[in-house]
């Protein structure tokens, strides 16, 4: 009987929440305040990614899995002399990982390539072109000395 008396109160609370700003999402979602379409956010913008220095090497992202290195070269060749074009592929499947690199002969050609292909369609997908950033040194594990034994497992070499 007590359960039957609580149900109308719960239903009334749910209808009040549905009419309130944020609606049922606030009732059922714990992170409803994170959605920008539910509550207006202040005009604080996230800091933009730092731009890479101009170079002849371009980073191209948003590639289709059907895009080949030759197709990438052909698309970018209309804006200048392409020295090299490479689509990075998965070792197992051989499909594109969705990004690649294009190297032009001159800085002027690379600037034309970015202006001409950034935000354009290639193989049905919108691609993005920007100057490539230099590769950061890898942070791999390096033992302090070569004579130390691993701290786990069988200590035989």
TrEMBL record:
Specify the RRM domain's residue ranges.
56-134
Give one GO biological process term. Answer: mitochondrial mRNA modification
Q: Print the keywords alphabetically.
A: RNA-binding
PROSITE patterns from the entry? RRM
Under SUPFAM superfamilies, the record lists:
RNA-binding domain, RBD
Pfam family, any one: RRM_1
Gene Ontology cellular-component terms for this entry are:
mitochondrion
Q: Which residues does UniProt assign to the signal peptide? A: none
Q: Name one GO molecular function term.
A: RNA binding
Q: Give the compositionally biased regions (Polar residues).
A: 137-148
Q: List every stretch annotated Disordered.
A: 136-157
Among InterPro entries, the record links this protein to: Nucleotide-bd_a/b_plait_sf (IPR012677), RBD_domain_sf (IPR035979), RRM_dom (IPR000504)
Q: PANTHER family given for it? A: NUCLEOLAR PROTEIN 8 (PTHR48029:SF1)
Q: What is this protein called?
A: RRM domain-containing protein
Native species: Microthlaspi erraticum
**Which taxonomic lineage is given here?**
Eukaryota, Viridiplantae, Streptophyta, Embryophyta, Tracheophyta
């Amino acid at each position: 009987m007590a359960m039957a008396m609580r149900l109308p109160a719960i239903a009334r609370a749910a209808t009040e929440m549905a009419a309130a700003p944020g609606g049922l999402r606030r009732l059922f979602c714990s992170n409803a305040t994170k959605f920008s379409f539910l509550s207006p956010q202040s005009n604080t913008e996230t800091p933009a990614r730092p731009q890479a220095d101009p170079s002849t090497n371009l980073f191209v992202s948003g590639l289709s899995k059907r895009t080949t290195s030759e197709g990438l070269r052909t698309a970018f060749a209309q804006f200048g002399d392409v020295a090299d074009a490479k689509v990075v592929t998965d070792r197992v499947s051989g499909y594109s990982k969705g990004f690649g690199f294009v190297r032009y002969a001159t800085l002027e050609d690379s600037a034309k390539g970015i202006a001409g292909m950034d935000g354009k369609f290639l193989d049905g997908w919108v691609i993005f072109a920007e100057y490539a950033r230099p590769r950061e040194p890898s942070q791999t594990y390096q033992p302090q000395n070569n004579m130390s034994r691993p701290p786990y497992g069988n200590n035989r070499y």
